[in-house]
């Protein structure tokens, strides 16, 4: 427990120092006539990065096993699924939405892939393609429920979460499916001890998410819809299509995550990815994406993912139980949201 309280103390110190620096920075920039949100966005990333570096330094002091190659590989394995899912979640939250169905989507898609290979006799490429398309369909269905039926994102995706999880239990009678073809499990195989294919897939998803958000019309529309939906609509942006797109992209990321998880475990279980939505939301929010929409970055999400992964890994090394770990994640989400609310209020009062 000593390591636990040490980590909490240093993290709170980092948060306090970051808030103080942000206040000083805001005061300086106010006299320059710059728009506060544009000024502080890069500063937020810097603050998050500093917090991550301090966290790693703290854990390195607390555990000799932290800075080892085996532990780095363990961290990668722990964050790989959340990494892919959080990329899609970034789009959703920037658009002003939320997706609570990602964990259930992963579980159901993984089971569908298993059924297609074991019972339908489909090839591995066809299985992967159809499994990912199925996840895209679930995501797009979320978007349709939200846009054309005017359901709140929380309600629509909460319902889909239970629907997909229930379907995952129903199609297999609650039983796991094991032993997949070699071509499927090779996706998560290691080359010279390194999960090379998994790393390449993660980097590809990250590049797609980053490039799309920064340089494409759908990415710009995502920011516009999240920032002010009415203004976006008056500007000629198809708001409904944009929302369906972001949820479909979130579904795509879930399909890829289902592939990585099922191939790594060589099994598909109805309980797979249970609670994954909370880890993804935590990573995105801690990374600086505003829960109110309109603000965020893929770089911030990556740092948020690393913070969540390193905290979990470090606390495991220190022997901290799962209960306190979940408490820490919850506290970090609350702190991140409070900082975002305070920053927005400061921006409004300065303009």
Distance from N terminus to C terminus (CA atoms, Å) equals 46 Å
Mean pLDDT: 86
Strand order of the largest sheet: 1-2
Percent of residues in β-strands: under 5%
The global form is globular
> Count of DSSP E strands?
2
Q: How helix-rich are the residues, as a percent range?
A: over 70%
Tally the structural domains. Answer: 2
**Which spans have pLDDT < 50 for at least 5 consecutive residues?**
33-40
The SSE string, one letter per element, is: HHHHHHEHHHHHEHHH
The secondary structure category is mainly alpha
Main β-sheet description: 2 strands, antiparallel
Rg of Cα set:
21 Å
Q: Give the count of helical stretches.
A: 14
Describe the structure.
- This protein has 351 residues and is mainly α.
- The protein is built from 14 helices and two strands, in the order ααααααβαααααβααα.
- It has helices at 2-30, 36-62, 69-94, 102-118, 124-147, 153-172, 182-185, 196-215, 217-227, 229-234, 239-265, 276-286, 298-317, 322-350, and strands spanning 177-178, 267-268.
- A two-stranded antiparallel ribbon has the order 1-2.
- The radius of gyration is 21 Å and the shape is globular.
- It starts with a helix and ends with a helix.
